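Milestone 3.1: sequence recovery, worked example.
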């Protein structure tokens, strides 16, 4: 099993959280004596076994214990190093980023999205059965350890070379699907909201939408004028009712509007005005503003290249960081006093 001295923030609450009052399986002393409780070890093993859907061997459990010991040693060293400081703002930013990554993996938010609403951030954390304060204390510990390793290995980390053209091309080929932009459409709409309507209210909104459509077709009123006077989309109405881009096959758009509505807007031509269309949100009169066919962004596109450079460099940095981290741990272990108890002697 690969050794990894840093874990996800939520999972590592098992490690750095309050120790249960039970027998210690190890004690660690670098700056002060700290126990590793059997409860801490068992909970950490349980998390890993759930992730891997299998039971760990005795040898693997010993590796897990050594990981916990390494974390305690690193944190003690970081906490005693006066050069290492972490601000509250850094903790909050990192906490939101870590939680966002986990929500992306679970499919709750789209790739690339980041939580920014502080109240929502607190709510999501507390739904895991922990307080925001506990969560951010763990994040702070992780940042302290990362800064300690970085500051004490600055020259090595600064010497990481820039990505080569070959490495960028290889990464581009591995990630081709990420650079495929699917068919997309932009549309203006006159919108009638039924999200909080009962059946009778929905029928009234449908009639209002039909009457507005008849005015559009049979009077001198323009689409733009009716957007301003009739649309209930307060966000888009003052910019012509524009929505987009909506990508073909976008699961989030399908869930938001409904697949039938999305299929309808893709079937219309640029400039064409729809009849009243129903979505999960309400009723729409749509005018297609722009459509773009699928395209593959080229490797030499400036944004693609910038993204590839960041990805390749991050992978190189992580590899070097893990290597110097293990060297740092080995050096700290020479200074530390570690005692194993029970089955782990």
């Amino acid at each position: 099993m690969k050794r990894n001295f840093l874990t996800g923030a939520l999972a590592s609450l098992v490690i750095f959280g309050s120790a249960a009052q039970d027998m210690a399986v190890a004690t660690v002393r670098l700056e002060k004596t700290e126990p590793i409780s059997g409860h801490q070890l068992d909970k950490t093993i349980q998390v890993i076994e759930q992730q891997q859907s299998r039971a760990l061997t005795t040898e693997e459990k010993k590796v897990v214990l050594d990981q916990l010991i390494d974390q305690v040693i690193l944190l003690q060293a970081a906490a005693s190093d006066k050069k290492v400081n972490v601000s509250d703002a850094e903790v909050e930013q990192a906490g939101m980023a870590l939680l966002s990554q986990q929500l992306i993996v679970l499919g709750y938010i789209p790739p690339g999205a980041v939580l920014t609403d502080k109240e929502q951030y607190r709510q999501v954390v507390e739904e895991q059965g922990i307080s925001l304060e506990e969560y951010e204390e763990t994040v702070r510990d992780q940042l302290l350890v990362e800064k300690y390793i970085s500051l004490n290995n600055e020259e090595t980390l600064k010497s990481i070379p820039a990505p080569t053209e070959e490495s960028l091309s290889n990464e581009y080929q591995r990630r081709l699907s990420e650079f495929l932009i699917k068919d997309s459409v932009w549309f203006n709409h006159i919108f009638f909201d039924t999200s909080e309507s009962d059946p009778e209210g929905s029928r009234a909104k449908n009639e209002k939408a039909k009457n507005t459509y008849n005015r559009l077709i049979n009077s001198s009123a323009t689409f733009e004028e009716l957007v301003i006077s009739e649309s209930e989309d307060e966000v888009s109405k003052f910019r012509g009712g524009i929505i987009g881009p909506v990508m073909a096959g976008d699961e989030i758009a399908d869930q938001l509007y409904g697949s039938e509505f999305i299929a309808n807007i893709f079937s219309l031509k640029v400039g064409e005005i729809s009849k009243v269309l129903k979505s999960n949100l309400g009723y729409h009169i749509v005018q297609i503003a722009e459509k773009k066919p699928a395209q593959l962004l080229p490797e030499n596109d400036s944004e693609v290249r910038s993204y590839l450079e960041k990805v390749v460099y991050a992978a190189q940095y992580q590899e070097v960081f893990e290597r110097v981290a293990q060297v740092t741990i080995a050096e700290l272990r020479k200074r530390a006093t570690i005692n194993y108890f029970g089955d782990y002697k």
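Residues 62 and 344 are 7 Å apart (CA to CA). The longest strand covers residues 282-292.
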